[in-house]
Amino acid sequence: MAGFIGKERHSIDEKGRLMIPARFRRKFADAGSCDGGASEYGRFGALYVMKTSDGSLELYEPSVWEGMGKSISALSDFNPEERLLKTLMYECLEMVELDRQGRIPLSREFLEHAGISGEVVILGADTKMIVWEPARLRGVVDGSSGRFAALAGRYF
Questions:
Q1: Nearest to 60 by CA among 83, 31, 38, 82
Q2: Are strands 46-51 and 4-11 parallel, antiparallel or unpaired?
Q3: 7, 26, 32, 33: which is deepest, by most CB within 10 A?
Q4: pLDDT at position 28, please?
């Protein structure tokens, strides 16, 4: 697991591509997910992109998503709730390949879901990267500022 930590601002280009910060690319290159050699994930590696219920996008390395995918695959297609969860999870997921400049294409559907049209904030969150439209992230942070101590006290 890469251990992504930090916050960076980047812009979506006119073709809907997002530049993955170099320090994050180095992390997953060090972990073997993006070694520049041809693989099942393309020449320069790949990431799984997931729409989230809070309006952000989460980016996962294939090695991290593999464990989550196994858990989802283990759900029964004959149990209506488990089948629904599978459908909902895979409906909001795409795998994208990095190009040689370290960019990933984001579909119009995913950009619209996250309210992204230009600049983004990319948060390193240990095993994933979280992509936010800056004003949306600011709203979440400002709206939750008084809850940090209580949440940290409850879970740590």
A1: 31
A2: unpaired
A3: 33
A4: 66
* pLDDT above 70: residue 3: yes
Q: pTM of the predicted model, to two decimals?
A: 0.87
Domain span holding position 14? 4-155
**CATH number of the domain residue 65 falls in:** 3.40.1550.20
**Residue whose structure tokens are 């996250």:** 114
Q: What is the Cα–Cα distance from 20 to 101, expressed in whole angstroms? A: 9
31: phi then psi, degrees, rounded to nearest 5: -85, -5
> For residue 59, which phi and psi values (nearest 5 degrees)?
-115, 125
Contacts 24+ apart (CB under 8 A), 21-27: 21/122, 22/102, 24/122, 24/124, 24/129, 25/98, 25/102, 27/2, 27/3
Nearest to 20 by CA among 57, 65, 51: 57
What's the CA gap between 141 and 151, in Å, rounded? Answer: 13
Number of domains, the chain: 1
